[in-house]
Amino acid sequence: MSARLSVEDLAFGYGERVVGAGVGFAVAAGEVLCLLGPNGGGKTTLFKTLLGLLPPRGGRVRVDGEDTAGWSPRRRALAFGYVPQAGAGQFPFTVREMVLMGRTAHRGAFSAPAASDHAAAEAALERLGIGHLAERDWLRISGGERQMALIARALAQAPRVLVLDEPTASLDFGNQVRVLEQVRRLADGEGGEGLTVVFSTHHPEQAFAIADRVALLHGGRLARFGTPDEVITAAMMREVYGTEVEVVAVGADGMRVCLPVGLKRPG
Amino acid sequence: MAALLVAAVCVAFSIGAYPVAPGELAGLLAAKLGLGSAAVAPAVETVIWDIRGPRVLTAMLVGAGLAASGAAYQGLFRNPLVSPDILGVSSGAALGAVLGIFASLPVLAIQGMAFAGGLLAVGVVLAVASAIRGRDPVLVLVLGGVVIGALLGSGVALLKYLADPYNQLPAITFWLLGSLSAVNRGDLAALVPPVAVALLPLVLLRWRLDVMTLGDEEATALGVPVRVVRIVVIVAATLMTAAAVSVSGIVGWVGLLVPHLARLMVGPAFVRLLPTAVLLGAAYLLAVDTLARSLGPVELPLGVLTALIGTPVFLWLLAFGKRGWS
Q1: How many CA atoms lie within 13 A of A4 on its CB side?
Q2: What is the mean pLDDT of residues B73-89?
Q3: Does one domain contain both A60 and A179?
């Protein structure tokens, strides 16, 4: 299978400051890539460079083999759907209006949304099970609901690659599980071709739960890339996060989790 | 909303030294359009055609223009508290226009100076805001606007000091207070093209403006070329403000208040917000101008009245607006 998203020898940073370099990996359609790494490791900068919000300092980002350098914002938006950590919206749009904005790249700069755009927005709302929120005020729904609505917006965009920046940060336990389930479902596709999903997180067990590939970013370098089993080992975690970690299997199906065994009460 | 505007127009025509009844107004309009003959006295026709008519239409255009530009700025800067006044556009335009009066330039040149001054002011404020990082960007923007506005205000004060006290100074003072009492058909003719030209891109980009309220990153990720859209909208909104200011003088608070009220009525989506703000702005300023010329034995300055109404509302927004303004 050819790569949907491939990153070749990518260097990234803000302005003159290079945050990371030499990053390369490839993800196929229907696969979930989990980006792990300590704070300041360059995850957010890498995301912004993937999305074209920052120009690459070197190397390439390809979608279906095509170099994305020089793409217009509109063309990028047709390839990448972006789910920010917390939507920056500060005006009381309805959830439906917010999701409809995902269709921006599908119509001309001056034209109103067509029936097909409204249909795509409704379909995205239904697919994420938040149709009942459609008329609610964006500023008055919960963090979990907002995250679902942002995913719906990215879905309405009909992208080939879905990029989620710490989608479970600031969500409660139940909402974390629901968002991750949705992310996996979007990659599997329902009958049709699945999306390629890239998401970042601070929780290694999320990679075990839903990811096909893991990229471990440390100090701006790709410390390791591979399946969750290959990347998330006690030794690797200790090296990158600087704390003692044990990887253990729990439950009937042996799902693996990382336990911070270095964490003990003093005395 | 349209009915409110029609009512404001009828009331505006019926108040004054020569009251004009709505029937007389309709009769004259019908006659001018070639439907039936004019059954109104020549004096009434003069009042409608040369005095009250231009004033009513100018008040509506100024109100609509200030409200539309306020709505655009608020969306673009993602804050309900910004307005042409806060961003320094009004004081920049004022300095330009006063400079024009000082140099005894014709109306069109004064308008051009006002536009250049407004654009320069908003440009400097934006440059200051983008140079100062690591602080609340909206606070920096607002404070930057206040500081630049104060600087421009001292420029206006200097020109007043230097102006000929018998000819120019009264004109400048009168103009700075904001008034439509000296408006004629020429002013109206000079106001229509810039407002129409500036309104067009705002109407065309109405859907993109909604996306711009999400901030640069999200808007870019959704496929909007933010830099181009921002420049087009700033130029359009500034042109509209400057055109209005160059005719009416400083009429504050309309650009802050009216878009806000419009948002309370129809929500933030620009496709509904813009027409509502335009109609509401036109009706509001016409009503205030009618009050200004009918309240006392002498006319009250328009800018003084809008400030009297606007200041308490702004303070209310500041106190209770954080989330409640939605």
Answers
A1: 20
A2: 83
A3: yes
Report residue A224: phi and psi, to 5°.
-160, 150
Q: What is the pLDDT of residues B8-34, one digit of tens each?
A: 888 888 887 778 888 888 888 888 777
What SS3 class is residue A31?
A: coil
pLDDT band of residue A99 (cuts 50, 70, 90) is very high
Is A78 an interface residue toward B (CB < 8 Å)? yes
The CATH number of residue A203's host domain is 3.40.50.300
> By percentage, how much of chain B surpasses pLDDT 70?
95
Smallest Cβ–Cβ distance between A109 and the set B208, B220, B267 belongs to B208
**Which domain CATH number covers B45?**
1.10.3470.10
Domain tally, chain A: 2
Is residue A54 domain-shared with residue A14, that is, in the same domain? Answer: yes
What's the residue count for chain B? 326
- Predicted-complex ipTM score: 0.90
Q: Which residues of B touch A48 (CB under 8 A)?
A: 217
Instruction: Judge whether residue B190 has pLDDT over 90.
Output: no
End-to-end CA distance of chain B: 20
- Which of B204, B213, B220 lies closest to A73 in CB terms? B220
Element spanning B241, H or E: helix B226-248
